[in-house]
Design brief:
83 residues; alpha+beta; two-stranded antiparallel sheet; 1 helix; 2 strands; 31% helix
């Protein structure tokens, strides 16, 4: 994403709702602006681990495999009945 503006003089904070993103590592960067110049960029890597957001890729693969098997069986039955 892009830069998010937060306001403050001596303290700044930002709340990040991670429930809409995938679990994984993310880099958060921050910089200050004094009205004239920007500071150096500081970075930190955080790991998002939302509970209940397991990697369900295997479920989708299983569904695809089952569908392919059903299509093959159906095609075989149709061809064998025509003989």
């Amino acid at each position: 994403g892009g830069w998010v503006i937060v306001n403050g003089i001596t303290k700044w904070n930002y709340s990040w709702d991670t429930t809409s993103i995938e679990n994984g590592d993310y880099v958060i960067q921050a910089r200050a602006y004094d009205g004239k110049d920007y500071s150096n960029i500081e970075s930190i890597t955080v790991t998002v681990k939302n509970e209940g957001k397991a990697n369900n890729t295997w479920i989708y693969m299983l569904v695809v495999i089952v569908l392919i098997v059903l299509i093959v069986i159906t095609a075989y039955l149709i061809v064998s009945r025509r003989r």
